[in-house]
UniProtKB/TrEMBL annotation:
This is 8-oxo-dGTP pyrophosphatase MutT (NUDIX family). Coiled coil: none annotated. It comes from Litorivivens lipolytica. Residues 73-90 have a biased composition (Basic and acidic residues). Residues 67-90 are annotated as: Disordered.
Length: 198
């Protein structure tokens, strides 16, 4: 199957994701929580997903990374989906629930938060967009970019990178899209989404 045959329409994404049963971390209620919104729309080359380039900020371990709108759950958030929607409104000035609807979620991902020893669980929610107003990024966001899912489904576009921390060096997978590197947690989320269609 060539990459052009993987993703055809937004409806196809919705139909495939709807019956998917994501893995949920059983301990998620007792650790720090975050959530992100993966906004998908029909594009010229098939469905495309919105990504943000995080602003360069000192002390932010994800500074300058490609990511999805999202962030830490607050006590006022009723659930993690509310977190994803609130953070998207704050970061890019768009309310996912008003311009589209949630078509499902992907598996929880565990990571280490900025502070503390307890892990943090991130839950990705996928939204199908009917329309998309002009984004209004806040100080946390440098850019808003649409990435074609067919680009990510093409293994020929996948590259390797070296991640370094102190003396530790690890070879990891990544994509370069329009001179922007997609890797890490964001890539893990995208890999799961793409895998449902292959």
């Amino acid at each position: 199957m060539s990459s052009t045959e993987v993703f055809k329409t937004l409806n196809q994404v919705q139909e495939t994701l709807s019956p998917f049963r994501p893995r949920k971390r059983w301990f998620r209620r007792w650790v720090k929580r975050s959530a992100v919104a993966m906004l998908v729309r029909d594009g010229k080359a098939g469905p495309e997903v919105l990504m943000i380039k995080r602003a360069e900020r000192e002390g932010d371990r994800w500074s300058g990374h490609m990511a999805f709108p999202g962030g830490r759950m607050e006590t006022d958030d009723q659930h993690s989906k509310a977190t994803a929607e609130r953070e998207t409104r704050e970061e890019i000035g768009v309310d996912p629930a008003k311009v589209g609807h949630c078509i499902g979620r992907l598996s929880d991902i565990m990571t280490q938060p900025h502070s503390g020893l307890r892990p943090m669980v991130i839950t990705p929610y996928v939204y199908a967009l009917k329309r998309f107003p002009e984004p209004r990024p806040n100080y946390e966001v440098d850019e808003v970019i649409w990435v074609p899912l067919n680009f990510l489904a093409d293994e020929g576009n996948r590259e390797k990178m070296i991640w370094e921390k102190g003396r530790l060096k690890i070879e990891l997978s990544c994509y370069w899209y329009q001179e922007r590197r997609i890797w890490g947690l964001s890539l893990a989320m995208l890999d799961e989404l793409v895998s449902l269609f292959q």
